[in-house]
Specification:
Blueprint: H1 7-18, H2 28-39, H3 48-57, H4 69-83, H5 88-100, H6 112-119, H7 127-140, H8 146-162, H9 170-191, E1 195-199, H10 205-219, H11 227-239, E2 242-249, E3 252-261, E4 265-273, H12 282-294, E5 300-303, H13 310-318
Parallel strand pairs: 4-5
Antiparallel strand pairs: 1-2, 2-3, 3-4
Helix pairs in contact: 2-6, 3-5, 4-5, 7-12, 8-9, 10-11
């Protein structure tokens, strides 16, 4: 018997896999949620042990650049269960169940519909939790350009909506079918709104400097920096602690945001909508995208606004920010 055949070592291996830093949704919290959902319906399972093992292994291998995660997870399950003395029938059942989660279509195992409903239970959660889930998925696929992600994600959600039933089993259908459809429809509306976003690179610093210069003039700020100076500063920002997001509509740049993420706070330094695209809801939509798809929901959000810029003060209050402090000064 090797160290691998020790159940504790297998548990530790799974915990390590689900704790990988690139996981934002497909982590231990997802497994915990699935196990809780399954506990409530375990009596419906033909092979409850196989389903529980499948829950543990179904996302064990998770690489957003790969297409064979479920296959590799199933193989890992087979090896580990066999190592601790699991029967060939149990190994086969768990493998089949794990593979059923690839396309979320009921497979040849009688418990596949139940496992799939457990895995898809997130779709029917409360609106705020669903938005958090969407943001977590987007972070896992951060490397995918927004327009590509929106198209691919829309196709997936549309396939779920096209089904006669999203949930195959009665308990999940009764509990989650209606809210899941509402969540998916709202998500599709946002994905197809035409506003896309991407993370700015150093090659965008010239563009960002031009927009920043407009922002300074529009705000009536005292900053005297020229566009070349602003470009140099923007480059230092992006090379340092800041991150910039560029928003586009029909391939036209319509806005940008510059922010810094700290341990307990997201500090938004700049948000700017180009002049001829204002009063079209772009600023509000940009904030919504940042909050739902870019920023973690567990952190405090802060922004600084010039008191004299009452339009900006009104905007930030309208999108959810509240007054916190006021900076006073005496000029020389």
């Amino acid at each position: 018997m090797t160290a691998r055949s020790d159940p504790l070592s297998i548990y530790q291996e799974l915990v390590s896999l689900y704790s990988q830093p690139h996981r934002h949704y497909h982590n231990l919290s997802h497994i915990t949620d699935c196990l809780a959902e399954f506990d409530a319906v375990k009596h419906l399972a033909h092979q409850p042990a196989a389903v529980e093992l499948a829950i543990w292994f179904h996302d064990a291998i998770y690489d957003t650049h790969a297409q064979d995660n479920e296959e590799r997870s199933a193989e890992l399950a087979k090896r580990r269960i066999s190592e601790v003395g699991g029967s060939p029938d149990l190994c086969k059942s768990v493998m089949v169940l794990v593979l059923a989660t690839k396309a979320h279509e009921p497979g040849v195992h009688p418990d596949a519909p139940l496992l799939i409903d457990v895995d898809l239970s997130i779709l029917g959660q409360a609106e705020e939790r669903f938005r958090e889930y969407e943001a977590q998925i987007r972070r896992e696929y951060e490397w995918v350009p927004e327009i590509t992600f929106a198209a691919g994600r829309s196709a997936i959600l549309e396939r779920f909506l096209a089904r006669e039933r999203i949930y195959s089993t009665e308990p999940f259908w009764a509990k989650y079918e209606r809210p899941a459809r509402a969540n998916l429809q709202n998500s599709l509306l946002k994905l197809n709104s035409g506003i896309t976003f991407r993370v700015a690179t150093l090659q965008d610093c010239g563009l960002l400097a031009e927009l920043n210069h407009q922002l300074i003039r529009d705000e009536g700020h005292r900053n005297p920096m020229t566009v070349p100076q602003l470009e140099q500063r923007m480059r230092a920002f992006i090379e340092g602690e800041y991150r910039a997001i560029i928003f586009e509509q029909n391939r036209e740049v319509v806005a940008y945001a510059l922010y810094r993420e700290e341990p307990e706070e997201i500090y938004l330094r700049q948000l700017f909508v180009v002049r001829h695209r204002r009063q079209q809801g772009i600023g509000r939509r940009a904030v919504e995208i940042l909050r739902s798809q870019v920023w973690p929901k567990t952190k405090r959000l802060t922004v600084e606004v010039l008191v004299a810029n009452q339009d900006a003060v009104a905007f930030w209050r309208a999108v959810g920010y509240t007054d916190y402090s006021l900076t006073l000064e005496i000029m020389p």
